[in-house]
């Protein structure tokens, strides 16, 4: 083995090889970059040989050939997009792992225009002086939510942190035990409250909290009552919670205590009229008497990742002036996407229904059935290796939104004659674009609720490439 390892070519010899210059040209690399790839591959090849992961007979006749071949593979992988396009065949509309909301065409176009040019992000064009990014879309948000004032930060977790830090630091915040939620990434309300400097006061029990629990906990040290909308889980059975309207009436007797509701998902469109969930509208929550409400931009709103804070102007002004506001501020492209998303809401029902998130959630199962049947027909006529059948199923909203809500849908349940469902799903994830599916009863299932008509050709090509 040692005599073979001594035959591994030195880097300076490989740099003289014609294949070195060919790779530089083909992949637009400089000598330093390509040399680093070669060094890593030489080290990797040596380790694999010593560990007997690779037989010496496979590479000994021509080490240089093996090295350049491996280096080309690694360069190709390295130059691929890290953030890659994915076809979402899971049927989960707000799939957190897949980026949640898809933006509307108008939002995408505005993002591109804003990214390609200078903008008035913090400049008053009429006055010719410095402005504030907080002003850019505040009027649209006020119109959409009915709040006195609104500001935007980079996500809803940031909104929660800012509100607690700016308005309740070193003071008590009352929260029902049943609302001490944990969301994705181990984000806990109790932990974020501790980090903000606010002091948590738990009331009630896990399954039952009454109005008198809040009343008894109020003290001179109370800065805020915080209601956390349980958007990522649902309790059923022997339960009791205090509604927003009840707490708002209690707060009328305690004007020095703030009432803040973290809505989490935050809907501007009434999905209830389609029989989907019971998510409250942001406008309704504000009208019920809360001082502040926060919610996400990339969930039911259907826009970019952002945390929106709406409520009393005096409180919003205090938040805007807080030092954390700069730390948590959003960028120009997020503002551009959010602006066009809000304009769709203000333009009326037809424009709202064009937002991909809203469209996918309220899409009739009958339309999905037609699309699924079309795909099954195309797949069966293009390949003899797949068995496909149409099945009724249900889709989920996802993204920690509307827990327990399932929407009727249709799926293509697909089996390969030689591959297991796991093997096929792996191959599909390796296509370009990657196809993410779900597995049921040893079949790969594609839910067409989250498949755009423009993706049908790529979806079919991915299955054919995975034969």
Task: Write the SSE topology.
Layout: H1 2-5, H2 11-14, H3 18-27, H4 31-50, H5 56-59, H6 63-79, E1 86-88, H7 105-116, E2 123-124, E3 129-130, H8 138-145, E4 149-153, H9 156-168, E5 172-176, E6 182-183, E7 187-188, H10 189-196, E8 199-203, H11 211-217, E9 222-228, H12 244-251, E10 258-264, H13 282-287, E11 292-296, E12 307-311, H14 313-321, H15 324-327, H16 332-346, H17 349-352, H18 356-362, H19 365-382, E13 386-398, E14 401-416, H20 421-429, E15 434-436, E16 438-440, E17 443-447, H21 456-465
Parallel strand pairs: 1-15, 5-8, 5-9, 9-10, 10-11
Antiparallel strand pairs: 2-3, 4-12, 6-7, 11-12, 13-14, 14-17, 16-17
Helix pairs in contact: 3-6, 4-6, 7-16, 8-16, 9-10, 19-21
Function: Converts seryl-tRNA(Sec) to selenocysteinyl-tRNA(Sec) required for selenoprotein biosynthesis.
GO molecular function: transferase activity
Subcellular location: Cytoplasm
